[in-house]
């Protein structure tokens, strides 16, 4: 069993990880979908302009969220992707790794002034608290995340 804090209402929920792998867990108080530990079962969460507010800003009130702004055609983005996959698997619910395709979601990219990719943002308590630009090694990304967990 893991405790998941609802990003919508703040309620603490007991979540059975095995059951959550088969069925989407929801908050017992408000019925909102709960995010599985480690961002979707150990995989980065895909974020869009429409879901950015709830899946990044609101979710960061429960635990830090690292947002990777990337594009499919970007070589350095493809280099960083396996590192982010590893970090998502290792998160243990301490943080979430999320990905935003800047070509498909220009509104959020423009809102944060993304001019080059990959650009990584760390959100905590509903605010952007850190930014990393360019392809970074796992040790650098992990250290920056650890500073906010």
For the record, the CATH architecture of the largest domain stands as 3-Layer(aba) Sandwich
Helix and strand succession?
EEHHEHEHEHEEH
SS strand fraction: 15-25%
CATH classification, class level of the largest domain: Alpha Beta
CATH homologous superfamily identity of the largest domain: Glutaredoxin
Q: What's the number of structural domains?
A: 2
CATH topology of the largest domain: Glutaredoxin
Q: How many E strands?
A: 7
Give the class from helix and strand content and strand pairing: alpha/beta
The coarse silhouette is globular
Q: Give the terminus-to-terminus CA distance.
A: 21 Å
Describe the structure.
This protein has 149 residues and is an alpha/beta fold. It has two domains: 1-34; 37-146, Glutaredoxin. It is built from six helices and seven strands; from the N terminus they run ββααβαβαβαββα. The strands form two sheets. Strands 3-5-4-6-7 form a five-stranded mixed beta sheet, with helices on both faces. It has a two-stranded antiparallel sheet with strand order 1-2. The chain is globular. The mean pLDDT is 89.
Descriptors for this entry?
single chain; 149 residues; alpha/beta; Glutaredoxin; five-stranded mixed sheet; 6 helices
List the SSEs and their pairings.
Blueprint: E1 2-5, E2 12-15, H1 17-22, H2 37-42, E3 45-47, H3 52-58, E4 65-70, H4 75-90, E5 96-101, H5 106-111, E6 119-124, E7 127-133, H6 138-146
Parallel strand pairs: 3-5, 4-5
Antiparallel strand pairs: 1-2, 4-6, 6-7
């Amino acid at each position: 069993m893991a405790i998941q804090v609802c990003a919508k209402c703040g309620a603490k929920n007991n979540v059975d990880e095995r059951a959550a792998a088969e069925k989407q867990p929801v908050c017992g108080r408000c019925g909102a979908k709960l995010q599985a530990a480690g961002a979707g079962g150990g995989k980065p969460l895909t974020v869009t302009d429409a879901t950015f507010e709830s899946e990044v800003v609101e979710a960061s009130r429960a635990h830090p969220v690292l947002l990777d702004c990337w594009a499919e055609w970007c070589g350095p983005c493809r280099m960083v992707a396996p590192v982010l996959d590893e970090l998502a698997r290792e998160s243990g619910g301490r943080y979430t790794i999320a990905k935003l395709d800047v070509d498909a979601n220009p509104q959020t990219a423009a809102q944060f002034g993304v001019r080059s990719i990959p650009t990584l943002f760390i959100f905590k308590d509903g605010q952007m608290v850190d930014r990393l630009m360019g392809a970074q090694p796992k040790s650098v990304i992990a250290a920056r995340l650890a500073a906010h967990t």
